[in-house]
Amino acid sequence: MNMSATTKHHVTIKGVKDGLVFLLDDVCEWNALLQELQHKLEKTHEQILTGPIIHVYVKLGKREVTEEQKEEVRSIIRHKGNLLIQSIECDPIEKPSAQADRAIKLVKGMVRSGQTLHHDGNLLFIGDVNPGGTITCTGNVYIMGSLRGMAHAGMDGDESAVIAASHMRPTQLRIASLISRSPDEWGIEEAFMEYAYVKDGKMEIDKLNQLHRLWPDPPQA
After folding, report:
1. Where would I find the Septum site-determining protein MinC N-terminal domain in this sequence (predicted)?
2. Which of 1, 44, 48, 126 is the most exposed place for a label (fewest CB within 10 A)?
3. Across-strand partners of 14?
4. For position 204, what pLDDT does the model report?
5. Are 165 and 200 in contact (CB under 8 A)?
6. Are strands 150-153 and 172-175 parallel, antiparallel or unpaired?
7. How do the domains of the chain map onto residue ranges?
8. What are the phi and psi torsion angles at 56 (to 5°)?
């Protein structure tokens, strides 16, 4: 089999205390990876892969594979009768940290009538949202200015999202799929430093200095 330069380093074999680790490249084309694995088992590494039983640990990196693809790897390695596969593992998917979840995008300006400002994540908007203007966000919306248009937080279904504003006089608020009552129904003529949130399936409004009640500090290590 003719191995080209582009496929020379898709498979790395390293010795460990109790066997061998096969490190398989996680970005190359799958068939090229299998071809090199087979080539190294049958040709270039044949001498070190002979003899008594050798335990093999296969590492797939960040590549997402199906059970059928794992079986393809097993099938190739099993052809060497002395190689005993102990595990075939992928790197765990990293979950966003709590700090990343709270990351905030800063935007300055003004949202005028007919304009829509959208952001995936949490948004801190410094400026006014005029009547007819709209802010939509998958996370929380914080407005340092007047909200006199429409704001939609948690638009992908996150009911834990909040909408906060220095001056809250919106035409409409939405959190996830919930639509607010109008400010008139809240019984508040002018709301300053307020935030809207969902409680028991209904949207409520409270002073910003009470926001910490929704997000208690994480336990200290």
Report:
1. 11-88
2. 1
3. 21
4. 87
5. no
6. parallel
7. 5-89, 98-213
8. -120, 135
Beta bridge partners of 178: 175
Please tell me the CATH code under which domain 98-213 is placed.
2.160.20.70
The pLDDT, as a whole number, for residue 209 is 87
| CATH number at 5-89 | 3.30.750
The β-bridge partners of 144 are 126
Count Cβ atoms below 10 Å from residue 62 Cβ, excluding itself.
11
Exposed (0-12), middle (13-18) or buried (19+): which is 143, by Cβ within 10 Å?
buried
Cα–Cα dist 56/54, whole Å: 6
CB 143 within 8 A of CB 162: no
pLDDT value of residue 131? 95
- Cβ atoms 138, 157 nearer than 8 A: no
Equal fold, 5-89 vs 98-213 = no
- The pLDDT-based confidence of 178 (bands split at 50, 70, 90) is very high
Instruction: Name the least confident of 18-27, 149-158, 178-187.
Output: 178-187
Q: Three-state SS across 49-112?
A: CCCCCEEEEEECCCCCCCHHHHHHHHHHHHCCCCEEEEEEECCCCCCCCHHHHCCEEEEEEEEC
Helix axes 67-78, 30-39, angle to 10 degrees: 20
DSSP H or E run through 87: strand 83-89
